[in-house]
Write the structure tokens for this entry.
Amino acid sequence: MALEEFRADAMRCTRCTYCRWIPFDLIKSDRFAKGCPSMEAGKFHAYSAGGRLVTALSLMDGRSTVTEKTKDSVFKCTLCGQCDVSCKMCRYDMEPLAAMRELRFDLVENGHTLPQLEPVLESLRTEFNMLGKPADERGDWAKTLKVKDLTKEKAEVVFHAGCRYSFDGDLGPVARLSVKILQEAGVDVGIFGEAEHCCGGRAYGMGYRGDLDNSARHNLRAWKAAGVKTVVTPCSDCFHTFKRLYTAEAGSDIEVIHMVQFVDRLVKEGKLKFTKEVPMTVTYHDPCHLGRQGEDYVPWSGTEKKIFGQAVAYDPPKPRYTGAFGVYEPPRDVLKAIPGLKLVEMERNREAAWCCGAGGGAREAYPEFSAATANERIEEAATTGADAIVSACPWCEQNFGDAVEAGAGALKVFDVMALVGMALGIEEEA
Amino acid sequence: MESSRDISRDAYRAIEDIVGADNITDDPAILDSYAFQWLAELVRPERSHYMPRPWAVVMPLTTEEVVAVTKVCNKYHVKVKPISTGWYHWAAPLKDDEPTVQFDLRRMNRILEIDEKNMYAVVESGVICAQLQAEVMKRGLNINIIGAGCSTSIVASASAYFGGGPSSYFLGSNSDNLLGQEWVTPAGEIVRTGSLSSGCGWFCGEGPGPSARAITRGTLGTRGGLGVFTKCAVKLGPWEGPPVLQPTGKPPAYRLPIPDNFRVYTVGTPSFEALAEIYYEIYDNAIGYIFHRQFNLAGADLAAALWLTYLDPNGTMNDVEARSKDPEVQKISEEARVSFQIILQGRSKEDIELQDRILDEIIRRTGCYKVERFCEADFAEFTNMYLQRMGHKHCNFVWVGGYMGSWMQAGTPDFVKGYVKTAIDGFERDQKSGLLVQCGGDAMMGCGSTLGGGGFFALEQFVSYDPNDNASVDACIKHMEDAITDCKANGIPLGKEYLYLQIGWTDERIWDDLSKMPQQFVLNFQRKIKEAFDPNGLGDRNYPWLPEGWGQQKTIAAGSAAVAGVGKP
């Protein structure tokens, strides 16, 4: 795709401002009505999806050139996709999220980059992770596990830990527990250990399409060599990247399952029983990449056509990604199955969830914006009376953890799988 | 393009000192996000989507900041143009050669007070209807949400717009509901109206002394109001539904369960005569909470196909095309061709049952009927959601992103039914080119009333065109001109298309046209208001007035538009 291909989206935007809010039907209070973290930070209309469409148009038409302020308006966004959900409440002919990504690609490819992101990308290119860690430490989390090494053996399923579960000592237990659950369920699973590479999804979100291509090529080649048919990951960023981006950008046909989906399936089939009480009230935060951006990818290639004279349709019919069919219930069902645990909802949930603030390069490039976005979610979680905020993405958890540590509230922060571990009575050491 | 016009940087710095560097910008791309406006292509040279670019955009936080920035504008002769949510070509600067500061009021977003006992709320300009409604419903109260939907500013609709919507039938329009307000004149003075002016609170919009409403009010949204409306109080009405709306289902068509004390119906009528008749009967009998002809915005030929597709989270426009050919759906289209939605709200079981029986009797007596498919639970719950929250109004643009509402002349139901045929015939004629969406000549949508208690009516023709296709844009402009011609030929007052097109006219053309209007003393009176409150001429160009020497100066003319000796001096 090229930016020019989104010209019609821009020309047909009506500046309605729906993209700034959660779907209006779901608004339950003045306090938690807003949907766009970027607008809250940048304030001007250019920080909304609709505004960015105009920016794209303005640049394409030569009405303006890229300034530091323009870059700020384009990149200070978590690409959470809330705008996309709200826009598509009433529109069938616009793809705001895809257009915003394309605008980033365009800027990056024309040299308008953010220096703050350079170290992260350097780490990806040389150490194959987004955390600036040495590549040879990537497999440390699994040293105590007896699991197939897919650099030497074959397996049907690869467990892809992802950068954060691999390098963040606090999250290592979640990754180990996940592998054990897969093994207990009789899954033929293996890992790549230190040979695992970043999925590339976060670089893609930062505007670096080529880096996703490199990661996809490597991972897909490695998986094929190991006979892998399914990838299971506890990371929502990786999940989205494999499920949506690898399919769209690299033609992958590999099955992709998030760990919470797998656990949910085991619980519902009676193959996993929670034996320990976890007396806690928790609220679940939908990660953007598992929720509204976690819908199945449907390949499509076609053209716009006019029906009824001027209405827009597509030949063949174009799949719609509205957030309606994201992965919302499996994590909730897992939590509800845990004895003693009470699940309460935040006002903005599922397709209307407020972002954690970690995505789209925001955490790396704009730490204050990222932290403010996390703080907002922590405040919302606190209003539910929950003891803890739970998620299924390590990036969300890290952003929330940092926010709490910086004084945003007294909530605990958990990964769903950590609570699963408690309910199973399995204590993995960090 | 230059980043700003040739205005002293001192002006920019002066404003920056007031609001802070983060709250003003003259970055060209960001300014373009304000210049780019819906309908611009209908009035701008070369079908441009951009209205004139503001010189700067400023985001004040308080009334005091609005005052201070306005005074800077007066010092440097920069025009002021406020927006709250910013939707319409007239929300942008209007002339290329007039440096204009666009006030984006979204930071002024506080609900200042909800007086449950006295049933009013005080809000700032950036508060949208959905925010306020969510809060007042918790107190058993409701607001009228205007036809443009819940994304709009309450202050804008109450202070500047006439503010009708589906619930105006019961709750009144927002212009009726306006109590005290705070207004910053283009000269930078604060005017507080009604009881607020005496420091007695917000509860009354009138007095002491002459009403200030005639001075502050514009016509439509930012079209016409001078200065900046910063706060207002609006009257609230009773809400007998749940304190928090709890929709179910998946997007886009969320459903709002219908409480036992509510009823939601789509009622079909055999003709527009019958529609007027049943409407008279309904308001004569004082039943109903919401009365609206909503779903016809998609056009009577396609409404059933569109909305039944909309209910399906996987639905696409291709499905609409397929459904439109389905004989079962075509049958529903015919049933719903001249239909409307009504929501009854009861204060008790007995009340709702009585209203229900009355409605049934009215339906029987007028030869109308309930449109069965649209009254089934899924569709009725969707209707309930749509009309209670008005959160789907961007469906106005559902076909292709371009929508121009023509007609919309308000009056009694009998008056409205009188222009419907002309509006339908004209639209059908203009659709034949294939350059407008062919949805049937009747795409007329509108509020059951803009007066609390009913009795008033208006229908707007939803003309959809592709803003990305100049031929389609041209066809829409031609349709607007045709509609004006049709109105004149049939003795019907001009509708919205006239107001839209006027945005692209020169001052002289506007004044020339206004010079031919009746009651020119009004426009001369408004000149005096403008001179008093906007001495430097920095307010909205669209404030309707006539300069001295234009039109009739001294006569209070009644009736005819064709008065000899009027026009350019």
User: Anything to note?
Assistant: The mean pLDDT of chain A is 96.
